[in-house]
Amino acid sequence: MARERGEKTVAVNRKARHEYFVEETYECGLELHGTEVKSMRQGRVNLKESFCAVKNGEMWAIGMHISPYEQGNIFNVNPLRDKKLLMHKSEIRKLGALVQRQGYTLIPLRVYLRDGRMKLEMGLCKGKQLHDKRDDAARRAAKRDVERALKSG
User: Fold this and answer.
1) pLDDT, tens digit (0-9, with 9 covering 90-100), for 83-120
2) How far is C-alpha 124 from the geometric centre of its chain's CA atoms?
3) Does the pLDDT at position 68 exceed 70?
């Protein structure tokens, strides 16, 4: 059986861009069990409350919920278990230092399938204050009003 080509988005963390300023994005692989991959291919993954952390020189996704696969029976694993992320050691060290020193946080932005392999796009983020969120909402509303005026006029 030939491997699929291309990219298919499985899940997106929409709340992340509302709650954080995304400075940089990184791509990493996911270490998963077979039933988790099958469940993710069906789109049964939730990134809402998840974040990434460095533990013992390894990168982990914490709080990512992958629903159990219906036909998985005894092979299913805990849906909230920590998933190991596959990245280069130098990237892990760099991100770990940034998170510790400068108050950044690592947030999973989306999970996608690229050429038959599950990938996670992670963002190096800084938290937004309430006034930043209000500014963004006002900017979106103004843009919408301009588009509406151009469309009708």
Assistant:
1) 999 999 999 999 999 988 888 899 999 999 998 888 99
2) 11
3) yes
Tell me the C-alpha distance between 62 and 82, whole Å. Answer: 5
Distance of alpha carbon 93 from alpha carbon 119, whole angstroms: 20
More confident residue, 76 or 38: 38
C-alpha span between 47 and 43 (Å, rounded)? 11
Q: Are 46 and 11 in contact (CB under 8 A)?
A: yes
What is the distance, to the nearest Å, from the Cα of residue 37 to the centroid of all Cα atoms in its chain?
A: 16
Distance CA(52)–CA(61), nearest Å, equals: 4
Q: For residue 2, name the pLDDT band (cuts at 50, 70, 90).
A: low
Please state, in angstroms and rounded to a whole number, the distance separating the CA atoms of residues 120 and 50: 12
- In 118-138, which positions are buried (b, 16+ CB within 10 angstroms) versus exposed (e)? bbbbbbbbeebeeeeeeeeee
Up-side HSE of residue 131: CA atoms within 13 Å toward CB? 0
